[in-house]
Design goal:
With 102 residues, this protein is mainly alpha-helical. Helices cover 61% and strands 0% of the residues. The protein is built from 6 helices and no strands.
Length: 102
């Protein structure tokens, strides 16, 4: 029997449906201290939102779908309230920790 081919994008979306995996994925992005991490984070959050269906996430977050796409783009500049609403819709939240290396 031939093995079904799965694209990287489809495999990633499947894994991102697990909130624990999604949290690790987003935290890995935030650990990168390179310039532009804000854009990379928004694009990674978009991947998570797409895994959960953008229209469902938009509805749960109280934003329209087009605005959600715009917010989670390279040019996106969401407010903290919008960002928190999207994270909550995905079953995630921000957490701040002390930097033990400092």
């Amino acid at each position: 029997m031939a093995k079904k081919k799965v694209s990287y994008a489809d495999d990633l979306r499947e894994r991102l449906r697990d909130p624990e995996y999604a949290a690790e994925y987003l935290n890995a992005v935030l650990e990168d201290e390179e310039e532009g991490v804000d854009v990379v984070f928004l694009l990674a959050l978009r991947n998570v939102a797409e895994a959960f269906q953008m229209s469902s996430v938009a509805e749960e977050a109280g934003v329209n779908r087009e605005n959600l796409y715009r917010m989670l783009s390279r040019e996106g500049n969401p407010t903290l309230n919008s960002l928190f609403a999207v994270l909550k819709a995905l079953g995630l939240r921000f957490s701040v920790q002390a930097d033990k290396a400092a």
